[in-house]
Amino acid sequence: MATQVRHPIWLPAVRQPGARTFAILYALESFARASITSLIPIQAYDLLHDEQAVSLLYTLVALLGLSATLFMPLLIERFARRWVYTVGVVALVAGSLFLLTNTLGGQILGMLIRVCGASALSITLNLYIMDHIRKTEFMTAESLRLAWSTLAWTGGPTLGVFLYARFGLLAAHGAVILFSAILLFLFWYFRLGDNPLIRPGKLRAQNPMKNIGRFIVQPRLRLAWLIAFGRSCFWSTFFIYGPLLMVATGQGELAGGLLVSGGNALLFTALIWGWFGRRYGARRTMGFAFFAMSAALLAAGYAGETAPLTAGGLLLVCTFFCIALDALGSTVFMRAVRAYERPQMTAVYRTYLDLSELTPPLVYSVVLAFTGLGGVFVTLGIFCIICGWFTWYYLPKRI
Description:
By secondary structure, this protein is mainly alpha-helical.
């Protein structure tokens, strides 16, 4: 009847998820992860008292983490995505609790659980972004997300070491628990949900090896992986061999720490590179960034141990151009992946991170047998030329 009125049930209004929503979540996640990144190797060394043993421990954890990444789609298919994200946050907390035991077993379990948690968070967050952000806005969203994490990756490692040195392990890992709790609260407050319009396709691959096969046969996905692998190889090299160069040449540990902090501080330039990508296109911007990185790396290799401060300055130049790849590189994958294959292909795509932590040290161990530290940067510079060539010639102009 006309006189009957169905009154609406008012629920607390939550703004539609957008680029800022994911930037906030990623910034908090970055704080939870970055605050003990410098502390974990210190703990490992205190337990093992051997640099090679620490390196082997990291290799073991990376290999097991790679397996966890490839099997992550099975969890996403079995459980709601919000629960997988929640488990990822809880894993960061559990990892810190194991690390607090200050035992070798706790160290191994803590590092492994943290890697699995980071994998769950990375994959699910990327899926949420692809669900809620339009393809034409990927560049803006990714550059904003990276810029918001600047403070975390610049100050987080220093904060963790300071808390450890001043107040002990409990304070340092307590920061992880605090940031994780805030992250989990905001995640549920934002009420992110799976996209109901996306349905599985008939070719949906369940086996992780089949997922790899499906990924490899798609040229655009292969190119997206190469771009991500190239930039991640630079960061792993920068974080390890930049400080090593400073220490080996007598500049001191402080110089190495300042070098890493300076590189992380440049993350805010992601907003600038996002504008360049929208103005001149992703292909031109990323191709130029790879070639500029190559030139700076070759120059840093030439300076090497004879002029370490010059080499360090050139590495900072490299970070500026690599941030362009961070800001724009993921858009290649996000625009290329088919909607019904997103969980499976996102898991395979993320293997670039695990392999970039495994491959460079193995290659550099051979290089260092014949050259000094400068040879490391020259080798990476040559690889960046290859990545730049593939990006320039095979990435479509419309990306």
